[in-house]
Structure formats: C-alpha cells, structure tokens
Amino acid sequence: xxxxxxxxxxxxxxxxxxxxxxxxxxxxxxxxxxxxxxxxxxxxxxxxxxxxxxxxxxxxxxxxxxxxxxxxxxxxxxxxxxxxxxxxxxxxxxxxxxxxxxxxxxxxxxxxxxxxxxxxxxxxxxxxxxxxxxxxxxxxxxxxxxx
Amino acid sequence: xxxxxxxxxxxxxxxxxxxxxxxxxxxxxxxxxxxxxxxxxxxxxxxxxxxxxxxxxxxxxxxxxxxxxxxxxxxxxxxxxxxxxxxxxxxxxxxxxxxxxxxxxxxxxxxxxxxxxxxxxxxxxxxxxxxxxxxxxxxxxxxxxxxxxxxxxxxxxxxxxxxxxxxxxxxxxxxxxxxxxxxxxxxxxxxxxxxxxxxxxxxxxxxxxxxxxxxxxxxxxxxxxxxxxxxxxxxxxxxxxxxxxxxxxxxxxxxxxxxxxxxxxxxxxxxxxxxxxxxxxxxxxxxxxxxxxxxxxxxxxxxxxxxxxxxxxxxxxxxxxxxxxxxxxxxxxxxxxxxxxxxxxxxxxxxxxxxxxxxxxxxxxxxxxxxxxxxxxxxxxxxxxxxxxxxxxxxxxxxxxxxxxxxxx
Lengths: 147, 409
Ligand SMILES: Cc1ncc(COP(=O)(O)O)c(C=O)c1O
Description:
The complex is a heterodimer of chains A (about 150) and B (about 400).
Chain A: H1 4-9, H2 12-19, E1 32-38, E2 43-52, E3 55-64, H3 67-80, H4 85-99, H5 126-146
Helix pairs in contact in A: 2-3, 3-5, 4-5
Chain B: E1 16-17, E2 20-21, E3 23-24, H1 35-48, H2 58-78, E4 86-89, H3 92-107, E5 113-117, H4 126-135, E6 138-142, H5 152-158, E7 163-169, H6 181-190, E8 194-198, H7 210-213, E9 217-221, E10 232-236, H8 238-243, E11 254-257, E12 262-264, H9 278-294, H10 296-314, E13 320-323, E14 334-339, H11 344-353, E15 356-357, E16 359-361, H12 366-372, E17 377-381, H13 388-407
Parallel strand pairs in B: 3-15, 5-6, 5-7, 7-8, 8-9
Antiparallel strand pairs in B: 1-2, 4-10, 9-10, 11-12, 13-14, 14-17, 16-17
Helix pairs in contact in B: 1-9, 2-9, 3-4, 10-13, 11-13
C-alpha cells in the first residue's frame, strides 16, 4: 500500500534527520530567539541563532512536531550555519520555491534539503516543512533591522 | 447497524481518493451532505430565492415561509417551547459568542465566576476568557477524571454562589465523552447560575431535548449534522432572551428607527440583524428531515456499535493508545488516538494515501491536549454512513503505517 508517492515524501534522509536531529538544543546567551508555531496543528519550534558580523555562526532548535517539520528544522540549521545573512535568506527563498512546486535555483548545492522536494506534492504538509525556515527568516530580518 | 444503503444518498462518498475508495472518518470536523440537502438548497435557489420578511411579492412569501418553516423544524428537533427561542446564527461559535457578549456583559461583574471544563473546544473557551478579562470575573475549570469524564462531585465543588455562567460541552469532540448535562444544569441552577451547552457534537448524534435538560442556552452547527456550512442555532429560554440586547444592529432586526433612537423587533428576529442565512436554514431543515426519518436514536446506536467495533479492533494494534473513556457506551462515535511515536500528521498522511480521511492535530482543544499531555493526536470520527468495513480499512491502514515507519527506516 505505501505508494511511491509516500516514498517520495518520506525519504531516508528525512527520517534520518527526524530520528537523529542535528543542532538540537538551545544556544544560551546573546543569541536571537525565535518561537513559532503552526496554529492549525500545534507544531512548534524554538530556534536560537547566533549572528556575528552578518554571519550565522551557530543555530540550534528545539520543538515538537511531525517528521517533516522536525527534519526540516534539523536540515535548516545545518544549512544556514556559517552562511551570511543574505545567503541564508537566499536559501530560504529557494526552499520556498521548491515547496510551491516552482522551478528553483539549482546552481547552489542544497545538500540534504533537496530531499524535501517531495513535500510539494502534499499541500497539507507544506506548512510543516516551512515552519523552521519562517522562524529563521524572522530572526535574521530582525537582526538586519537592528543594524 | 444502519443499512448500508444510506451511503447511496451521499454522492461524495462514491469516489476514489489517491486510487482507493474514500473512507471518510472526519465527520467530527464536518459531515458529508445527502442529496436531500443539496436538492433542497438547489430548489430554493431555482424557485424561491428572494429576501425574507420584506417584499409583498410571491417569491418573498415563499422564501419567508420556507425560512420560518425551518425555524419550526428546529424547534421540534430540539423540543423547544416556542420558535421565539430559536435564533439562526452562523454556527456554534457565533452562538456562544452571542451569549457571552449579550447575556455575559449585562450580567457578569467583577468577582463573579464563569465555569467551564478542560475538555472544551476553543469556541467554548475564548469567548469566556474575553468576558472574564473585560468584566474582571474569574474563569474556573472543572477538572476531569483520569478517563476523561466529568464527575458530579467535582462539578459541585467548582460551582459556587459566585458562579454566574456554567458552559459545558455536551459531547466532547476529542474524547467522545457524553456529559451529564441535565445533572450539571441542576447544580448550576441551585447556585443561581445559568447553564450554556455546546451542542456541536451532540446535535448530529443524539436526540436533543432542551426542556428535559432545562439548560438556558444551547448552541449547535448545521454542517456537522448533514446540513450546509454557515448556519447554526442558538437556543435560549424566552425569559432570558427577552431581556437580552442584540449584538448586531442593522436591517431586519429593527422595529422603529428614528434619528437617534431605535427599537427592536420581537424575538427571535431582534438577534438576526441583516439578511439572514436563508438557504442555510432551508438546508438545515432538510438535514433535520433526513436525520429524523432515519431516527436519532438509531443513529446514536449505530455510532455506539461502530465505536465499540473500532476500539476492539484498534486496540489489537500494539503501541496504539486511545484517549477518553474505555467503556464505549460512555462515548459517541469519536475515537482519538496515537500510534507509537509516529506523529499524527504522518499517520494522517499515510492513511490519506490509502484513501482514508482522519483528522490530525489539536482539534481546536489545546487545553485538553495539555491535559492529555500530548501536542497532537489523530482522530477517527464516525457517522451514519460509516460501516464496519470502513473501520477494517482504518485498522489495516494503521498497521501499514506502523510497519512503514518502524521497519522502513
Ligand atoms: C465541541 C465543538 N464545539 C464547537 C465547535 C465549533 O463549531 P463551528 O466551527 O461550527 O462554530 C466544534 C466544531 O469544530 C466542536 O466540535
């Protein structure tokens, strides 16, 4: 019964991030803190970002949610660590296009994130996948405004 | 069990979803609509459409007759004394907000208490939170028993002489628990409080009798009982409604309008400002005819049987937890569960790929989720068109889900 479609959604990499999340936890002091939830389903993320000189030096998350939202959070923190703010925002933009099923910029190596492209075929799950990215965007744009 | 022929009245059920025949187990969110209801709305728009209580012309009369005829049908359906006690609203949410804003603002003051429970839907929590904040009253929660039922001892211990409003769900949309509304109403009245009932999950599934319950207000939605969306009912005792102020002002609800002062129409129209939900009320009346022809008692029995069957079968799946009373006779056709540590969203997605629709999330009851100590659950809710085969499909789907998540990765 689990169709090919399901296998496209639940890739091995996704389940690996879900079961062994990277950057789980919270950065203690001086970090940007963003709390976001998905009111329709109760998923929530607590994201902490350490931004110095326009670069995301560290990123950690805590939260509760389904395999898609939590694996996406894990991948996001992995992807933005060491990136400049505009690079992180650009990644977020690419991710959003991917979720909307649009053509996306593939000149950048997306690494594990690519595995989430199956989510686009499951409209009800797109919000799960984008939660962590929205939190990151909110955090860095606040940081940008302050400087 | 009800006859499977009932399914043939619901065109939507006769389709494939993701390559499998649809099994619809989300009637708790909204029920499907039989042809009788769809046709009644179509007939209204094709032959009667017109505004009500206005024109002198024939269509206007037809529309008014159908709309007011629907009100009489609702009155009988819930055994109210008079059609003056039946107010058409947009749904349960609007009905409860009307009580909170009209009765509540006029009768609740600082130091008073409003009493609800931990198993309420957000629509029976937030209107009272807001009222408590505005007035300085205290919002109190009745604690639940371990199996998700209410005990009358705790009800008695929570309601005091300071309590002005008690508002409780008749049938829980998460636990399926059926609450002893009649007994709770008596306790509320002994303390001089009024009793408001959230009947959203009760109206579709059991015989309502507001005179027997003796509750002061009761709210329900048409869309959960085979009727259309956008129509609901607020029942209120006439003596209370008479003294209450409308919360919406405009056309249809007025008697005389001067430059600086106006007067209101009599009940129930003073609470129905603006062009009413005419097609919705007519659709609701058709839904009531449909349900009564089958019999609410029969429907309730059918759901108990399905719930019993479902709980038996589901509990054979290792790692599956069912929330709420273990005794199926204490619950309506609602089974909320979790499967091991597979997140309910993932459960719902895998089931959906097999054509099975269940709900996943917090079911608009975040305080209850907190009480259950989980952030989300999956819910299968049954209605008159569901069968044992639907449940067999659900159980098979759950087994596959478990295998998929436990073994595939
Ligand atoms: C117990 C309960 N109360 C209230 C509501 C709200 O109903 P509506 O959204 O139709 O206003 C619902 C439906 O979701 C419910 O299940």
